[in-house]
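Journal club prep — side note

Before the paper discussion, L.F. wants everyone to see what a predicted structure for a comparable chain looks like in token form. Sequence:
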Amino acid sequence: MINDKKAVLGFVSMFFISLAGAHSSRAQVVGPEWCKISEEFCLKAAHAQTLVKKIQKEMDRFHYDPKTGTCVNKEGVQGYNKTDDLMDGECGDFHGLDLHSADLLEADLRGANLKGADLEYADLSGAALMGADLSRANLRVADLSRAEIDAHSRFKNAFYTEHTLLPFSFEEASKLGMFGIMDD
């Protein structure tokens, strides 16, 4: 048993410093009783947890690499981000989604997977589509004017009409493997 108050206080303070430091997730183990005693400690521990989660999320996030035309994370692993935010949809996986009439004006969709997505009447004007995969997408009457594309953007078997506004000519659309219907 420890009778020395300084030793006890030293031990307790070191314990709480370790909790507030790199092991902030232990604050949940201490529970609400400790938060009643030290609200400031709990706020610092919660803030530390939030920062750790944010850093981890950023480390796991995939970014478009224009050199390779792929989406990779910090470790070089290829993949897509799970997100519902189409405006910040870099490397997002949106394949097969119904995006009919979606307002994607100037959206960041670099490296996004939009295979088979229904983009009929969607506004993609000015969208960043470098490396995006729009294979088999329905682009009927969609507006892709001013959309930014690169050599890695894919449009094979994407469908368009004469009312679709593309960032390239209809002749170029055919060369990219797109198919369309022109009214007479």
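L.F.'s comment for the group: The chain has two domains: 5-60, 62-184. Keep this in mind when we get to the figures.
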